[in-house]
Amino acid sequence: xxxxxxxxxxxxxxxxxxxxxxxxxxxxxxxxxxxxxxxxxxxxxxx
Length: 47
Prior knowledge:
The chain is mainly alpha-helical.
């Protein structure tokens, strides 16, 4: 589901950076953002 979510919801269907290192960096950033979104759902901000 992670890869499908990145492609559809975050519009990451095509990578913007060139080469394997650039693609790896871009995908790692997108996966990190996805993990932070999951953590935000588990641990809501204190009020």
